């Protein structure tokens, strides 16, 4: 049964398409390329759009338009080849308003793809015309899956007809859980593939009008949640470490202040306990009358004269003129007496 689509381009471009085909759900690594079939027959007029808004290429007779000639190439049969894929190329592609493909752009080496999609794996890093592909499932031995010879002959070694060599890459149609694992081409690791549960939008069931979240987006969100959950313990450890260091610094500062105050108190106590010279200096006086104004103060005492001394704390035996002892209050007083001898006076006269 044929379906006619009427659409307008520039000055009333009209086209009719038939033989609608089921949409293909491609998953292709970035920087690679993929060719999307138009699915229209019997019409030379073609218009390709992405996400129902962006017009990529058009052809009406001999008139053509191309948004980016370096990346978009319109084939003679109406197919569209997209080169140097980027993440922004993700989305749904329509040819003459008919949905023909949904493109998922993969990044890195770890790919998470829903079951039922068509996966392309290019042999990157190897310039040999012959390509030898192996798959290694977790816990199993490496197994050969496909060989492409120099003359272009392709020999699938397993997969039940789902494996082929298309778009210059190993193509796995209707991806299944047993397709998960590591893929090696000519001894070089190309990808680690994880297959999710069967996707609601397969090649045999056209998608609904609402746009479901892409598996890549879902995987990214799950990865962000895991990343946040993994970083929480690290943040807690950092916080605990910072608090511990702060408490240690405060403790050390308190100990230093305490030691300094104790040292200052000890110094004050020693200074207060040490007697001064004025308090301990010997204070002599005699029982005789006080010397007159013209009397020699250094004249030794007469024979038999007794000289008394008073001191605080320690003795000072230096002889001084006799005088009345000063008032000593609030101190303990040590009294001493010295009796001069005649021999000492005679020697003084000589």
TL;DR?
The chain has 350 residues and is of the alpha+beta class.
Shape: elongated
Given the structure, what is the number of helices? 3
Strand order of the largest sheet: 5-4-3-8-9-1-11-16-15
Broad structural category: alpha+beta
Q: Biggest β-sheet: count, sense, barrel?
A: 9 strands, mixed
Q: Helical residue percent?
A: 10-25%
**Euclidean distance between termini CA atoms:** 160 Å
On the 0 to 100 scale, the average pLDDT is 75
Question: Regions with pLDDT < 50 over 5+ consecutive residues?
Answer: 1-19, 199-229, 277-282, 285-292, 294-303, 344-350
Give the topology string: H per helix, E per strand: EEEEEEEEEEEEEEEEEEHHEEEH
Per DSSP E runs of 2 or more residues, the count of β-strands stands at 21
Helices and strands, with pairings:
Elements: E1 24-29, E2 34-36, E3 46-50, E4 54-60, E5 63-66, E6 72-74, E7 80-82, E8 91-95, E9 98-106, E10 110-115, E11 118-121, E12 131-136, E13 143-148, E14 154-156, E15 163-166, E16 169-172, E17 181-185, E18 188-198, H1 215-273, H2 277-280, E19 283-286, E20 306-311, E21 334-339, H3 342-349
Parallel strand pairs: 1-9, 1-11, 10-18
Antiparallel strand pairs: 2-7, 3-4, 3-8, 4-5, 6-7, 8-9, 11-16, 12-13, 12-17, 13-14, 15-16, 17-18, 19-20, 20-21
Describe this protein's structure.
By secondary structure, the chain is an alpha+beta fold. The protein is built from three helices and 21 strands. A nine-stranded mixed sheet has the order 5-4-3-8-9-1-11-16-15, with no helix packed on it. Strands 10-18-17-12-13-14 form a six-stranded mixed sheet. A hairpin with a 2-residue loop joins strand 17 (181-185) and strand 18. The chain is elongated. Mean pLDDT is 75; it is low at 1-19, 199-229, 277-282, 285-292, 294-303 and 344-350.
């Amino acid at each position: 049964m044929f379906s006619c689509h009427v659409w307008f381009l520039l000055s009333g471009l009209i086209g009719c398409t038939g033989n609608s085909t089921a949409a293909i759900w491609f998953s292709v690594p970035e920087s690679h390329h993929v060719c999307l079939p138009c699915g229209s027959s019997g019409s030379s007029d073609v218009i390709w759009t992405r996400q129902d808004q962006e017009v990529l290429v058009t052809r009406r007779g001999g008139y053509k338009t191309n948004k980016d000639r370096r990346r978009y190439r319109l084939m003679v049969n109406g197919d569209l080849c997209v080169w140097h894929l980027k993440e922004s190329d993700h989305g749904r592609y329509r040819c003459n308003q008919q949905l023909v493909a949904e493109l998922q752009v993969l990044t890195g080496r770890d790919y998470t793809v829903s079951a039922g999609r068509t996966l392309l794996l290019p042999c990157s890093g190897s310039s040999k015309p012959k390509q030898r592909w192996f798959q290694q499932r977790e816990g199993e031995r490496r197994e050969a899956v496909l060989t492409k010879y120099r003359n272009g002959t392709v020999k699938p070694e397993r997969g039940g007809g789902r494996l082929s060599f298309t778009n210059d890459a190993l193509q796995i149609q209707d991806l299944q859980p047993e397709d998960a694992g590591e893929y090696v081409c000519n001894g070089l690791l190309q990808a680690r593939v994880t297959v999710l549960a069967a996707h609601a939008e397969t090649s045999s069931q056209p998608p609904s009008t609402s746009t479901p979240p892409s598996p890549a987006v879902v995987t990214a969100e799950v990865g962000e949640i895991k990343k946040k959950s993994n970083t929480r313990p690290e943040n807690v450890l950092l916080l605990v470490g910072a608090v511990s260091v702060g408490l240690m610094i405060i403790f050390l500062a308190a100990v230093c202040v305490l030691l300094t105050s104790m040292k200052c108190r000890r110094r004050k106590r020693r200074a207060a306990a040490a007697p001064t010279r004025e308090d301990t200096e010997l204070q002599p006086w005699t029982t005789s009358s006080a010397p007159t104004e013209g009397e020699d103060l250094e004249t030794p005492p007469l024979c038999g004269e007794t000289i008394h001394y008073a001191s605080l704390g320690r003795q000072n035996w230096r002889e001084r003129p006799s005088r009345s002892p000063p008032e000593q209050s609030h101190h303990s007083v040590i009294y001493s007496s010295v009796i001069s001898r005649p021999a000492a006076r005679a020697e003084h006269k000589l």
